[in-house]
Amino acid sequence: MNLRRIAKIAFSSLTSRPYPESPAQGSAPALADALPQGFLLGTATASHQVEGGNDNDWTDWERGAHPDGTPHIKDRTLSGAACDSWNRFDDDLACMKMLGANAYRMSVEWSRLEPSEGAWNEAAADRYLAWATRLREAGITPMVTLHHFTLPRWVATQGGWMSDRTIDLAAAFAGRVARRLGGAVDLWCTINEPNVLMTMGYLKGIWPPGMRDQRIAAGVLARLMKAHARMAGAVHENDKKDADGDGHATRIGIAHHVRIFQPASRSPVDKVVSGFMDALFNQALVDAHLHGRVQLTVPGAVDIDEAVPGLAGSYDYLGINYYGRDHVAADLGDPSLSRQFVPEDRPVSDLGWDIYPEGLYLVLKRYGSLGLPIYVTENGIADRSGMSRPAFLRAHFDALVRAAREGVPVRGYFHWSLLDNFEWAEGFEPRFGLFRVDDDSPDKKRIATPAVETFQEIARQLGLKPEAP
Ligand code: IFM
Asked: pLDDT category, 2, cuts 50, 70, 90?
């Protein structure tokens, strides 16, 4: 056991200040002055959640049930045709233009591009390249994520992220995509939310492959970090084309889900447990870039401290996915030694997530001095009525602007999501889209929610020009 590290985390948890509830008051800053030239304002999606017709490790999982009989997907929906974005790029592009967005974060589906080992689907690669090219022509910068939770079946059956071989396979895939799309793409993201993938798939068993094992989970997170380093290297090697002529052919980072872990009480035990959650979930991925080591510690269970070649300095930017806050109470009966909850008096989303815009400001301030540009690669709310999203978007964007004003090098904001889509184990019930997708209409009509206007206002304040529908 690494006692020094354990003592360090415990000490800093006990001495850190409590999180404030609400922002310091001040006048709303003028956006164009606060944010840098070229600030990216966009939306984000992921292939499996929007494209439809995918066949990967989720496809079987969606049909299955947990040992106690509860279905893997809460509302029993299948991703199926999803938003049919695979066939409706024109509609999606029209939505982006209507928003006035100048960026779009999308992912490419490994199982589509490489349906079996070594086989390459040129037609699918052509389509992704055409999308990236069309985005660019429309003045919309594409950010391409290479791995957003799903694995081809043939990778999953070889052990997926429990096997070291997947690191080699993912690096080869990344290099190939970079060669193919590099002429239109400069901004890349290796892996979406390694910490969430670890938690849901290997600690809680809610996602494939349904494991619940702390040691396996930690091993998976370590492997994802190694894969990130190799994938980033492969993309730099294979994408030498500077699509926008800004002198950078490739900028690659990671989309890191950062949460606020608020001790549930002033008890030192709650504070220390929150500190360990923070160290494992939030800080480990940032330290990996700073020190080139994967360091994961859960007292009594996990103790990984390993130097990884290529990891130090492997982020050209830090992507932050921010959704909110958990209150954390010690619970020695739980494998994570804690219980996370949201107090009853808090405003919450349809998924019961704490709406805490101040947290975005705090997270940006926390990571603002790493010397890395920061993109908010995701931020959004499950809001079926669409009535809470405008205030959510405005409050979070204000938090971002406040951090930028105070010197944080924040270079972009991507709202999750462009469209209502397949929300993994929750199915289609939660709605995150700026645009609702009408499943009853034959052409899956995209319908603007009230937050489209909020987004357009922000776009106009940045000098962008939303188009009439
Ligand atoms: O839908 C997900 C996305 O795939 C990853 N980040 C969080 C979103 C909302 O849960």
From this structure: confident
Q: For position 182, which CATH number holds?
A: 3.20.20.80
With respect to residue 26, please indicate whether it lies within any of the assigned structural domains.
Answer: no
Distance of alpha carbon 111 from alpha carbon 121, whole angstroms: 9
| Residue 200 domain boundaries | 3-15+38-461
Q: Which residues line ligand 1 (CB under 6 A)?
A: 46, 49, 192-193, 321, 378, 416, 423, 432
From 62, 114, 378, 423, active-site residue: 378
Cα of 380 vs centre of ligand 1, distance in Å, is 9
Scored b (16 or more CB within 10 A) or e, 348-382 reads bbbeebbbbbbbbbbbbebbbeeebbbbbbbbbbb
Atom of ligand 1 nearest to the CA of 423: 1
What is the per-residue pLDDT across 148-185, written as a single tens digit (0 to 9) for each? 999 999 999 999 999 999 999 999 999 999 999 999 99
Cα–Cα dist 330/342, whole Å: 14
Handedness of CA 158, 159, 165, 167 (dihedral sign): positive
Decide: 177 and 142 in contact? Cβ < 8 Å: no
For the chain, the domain total comes to 1
Query: For residue 321, how far is its CA from the centre of ligand 1 (angstroms)?
Result: 9
The contacts of residue 323 (CB under 8 Å, 6+ apart) are: 257, 259, 353, 378, 379, 380
Among 47, 193, 421, say which to mutate for ligand 1: greatest number of ligand atoms within 8 Å of CB: 193
Q: What is the pLDDT of residues 177-205, one digit of tens each?
A: 999 999 999 999 999 999 999 999 999 99
- Residue 31 pLDDT: 78
234 and 228 in contact (C-beta within 8 Å)?
no
The span from the CA of 224 to the CA of 401, in Å, is: 32
What per-residue confidence (pLDDT) applies to 1?
A: 62
28 is a domain residue = no
Asked if the structure places residue 469 within a domain, the reply is no
Closest CA to 389 of 438, 342, 458: 458
- Say if 435 falls within a structural domain: yes
Shortest-distance atom of ligand 1 to CA 421: 1
